[in-house]
Amino acid sequence: MIIKIVKYVLILAPSLFSTHTWLYMKSPKYYFFVVRMFSKWRDTNWSIYVNYELDELNDTYSKIETVLKTRYEGKKYKREVNMINKKLYKCDGFNMLIKDDFGDGDYSSKSLYISITELNVTLNTAEEKLRSFRELFNEIHRTINPRNSSYNLDVYFKNGRNPFYGLMVQRLGKDKVNHFECHFPISSIVPKAADKINDSHLLRIFKEKLTINDSSFDILEETAKRALLFK
Fold first, then answer.
1. What CA dihedral angle connects 155, 94, 54 and 134, to 10 degrees?
2. Are 55 and 178 a contacting pair, CB within 8 Å?
3. Which tens digits make up the pLDDT trace of 96-109?
4. What is the DSSP annotation of 68-101?
5. How far apart are CA 152 and CA 214, in angstroms?
6. pLDDT digits (tens, 9 = 90+) for 62-78
7. What is the 3-state composition of the chain as percent helix, strand, coil, each rounded to the nearest 5?
8. Which of 1, 62, 84, 152 has the greatest CB tally within 10 Å of its CB?
9. Is 55 helix (H, G, I), strand (E, B) or coil?
10. Starting from the edge strand earliest in sequence, which strands make up the sheet with 94-100, in order?
């Protein structure tokens, strides 16, 4: 019995391997299934950049600080830098830098900038991180009521293991590609929200990272979930 099983395995192995190779090269769904199975992109590094355009600065910093204090009370919350036009907060495992350009005179765009960088995120924690930041930025948005807003998420894949880059250039050979950049309109990725999305808002794929930008963190979250988690 065992000998028969071994024979069948030996006979079928070349055919199965050929099928696997063909699907891996031709089918994106199968490719990403294999990628996820072997956790090639489990560890990522995120950077989040936010731009709020305001009519007046007034007490915007104190309003945001109230949001942070309420949300992260008892979770290692601390204000590390307290300058007139720049604040740095440590909040539950990440640092948030906030600054403005209201002091730049004629060169001012009347904008407030928020950045969170060097955020380590695993495949298992990505969805929770997205939900948490969506809740945070939606609360900040409601509190300061900006004239316009934009959100940008950069996802860096460790050890050069960007699965999207790998899918698109595997036939060429990675050593032959010096620069890689591919754009997708977010409306083609999140069709149910297409009427809310400007065509200039894009998912960009580079050799070392994936970048998403939109005026709504809700749309950014949905796009990231589809791109990273296939939700």
1. 60
2. no
3. 999 999 988 888 89
4. HHHHHTTSS-EEEEE-SSEEEEEETTEEEEEEE-
5. 7
6. 999 999 999 998 778 89
7. 45, 30, 25
8. 152
9. coil
10. 78-82, 86-91, 94-100, 111-122, 43-53, 148-157, 209-214, 202-206, 181-185
